[in-house]
Amino acid sequence: MIDAAGQVLAEFTTIITTTATTTGLIWLVVTLAIYTGAIWINHRAGGNPLLHPLLLTATGVIALTTLLDISISDYQQYAGLLHWLLGPATVALALPMYAQWQKVQQLGWRLILAIAVGGIVAPLFAWVCLFVADAPLALQMTMLAKSITTPLAMESSRLIGGIPALAAVFVIITGIVGAIVAPVTFRLFQVTDPQAQGVALGAVAHAVGTAKALSMGEDVAAMASLGLCLNGIMTAIVLPLLFG
């Protein structure tokens, strides 16, 4: 444990040293500025999933690095602090889990089963499509982590031989698509129960789906955050056990 702590400290020191340079600070500020602008645009658009802040920020950063002829690897070094913070962000998932723990105890195995089914069926169907298309194994493994939040997806895909950077892309696309089609799907199948809607959004469309749930009501949002956390935890444990 002491060695692991020392390794984390050394990694953090390296990241801070790189970020503390003039170029690193400029890119950090620019990234945060683009993200702030993306939030403003999304708010003005009424929370349209197609204009999700993550999508707008990624597009803006790619456009800027292309315009300035900056390689993505260089950008990753300069903005490494943001990537490193994904770790603490993952640990912070304990907060919504704790807030909804009473609901977990109340619903018990029914809730766990519903989230587990959603967390298995969605990535399994996507994996089957890639398997039939004879996609590379690394791509198949990456797809299995598409329905959990970005920090967990990147680490889980790394442990099972996937591509962490591509996992982040799959996660964003999954969340946006889920947030767009969820209202239509609920109407088509007459899913009116707020708890069922929330679990579906959180378990399948992770953080983006949870953001959509916020606009659908407090009960929906609460269950979405619960679905997000439980599915993320279960997937992050099961995938390495099966394919690690």
Question: How does this structure look, described?
Answer:
The two termini are 21 Å apart. This protein has 244 residues and is mostly helical. It folds into two domains: 2-84, no CATH class; 94-243, no CATH class. 31% of the residues are buried. It has helices spanning 2-19, 22-44, 53-67, 72-78, 80-84, 86-91, 94-99, 101-107, 109-132, 137-143, 150-159, 164-188, 194-214, 218-243. It is built from 14 helices and no strands. Helix 11 (150-159) packs across helix 12 (164-188) and helix 13 (194-214) crosses helix 14.
Q: Radius of gyration from the CA trace?
A: 19 Å
The shape is globular
Low-confidence stretches: none
Mean pLDDT: 83
Structural class by helix and strand composition: mainly alpha
N/C terminus separation: 21 Å
Number of strands: 0
Secondary structure tally, helices: 14
**Main sheet overview:** none
Q: Helix-strand pattern, N to C?
A: HHHHHHHHHHHHHH
Roughly what fraction of the amino acids lie in strands? under 5%
> How many domain units?
2
Secondary structure: helix percent: over 70%
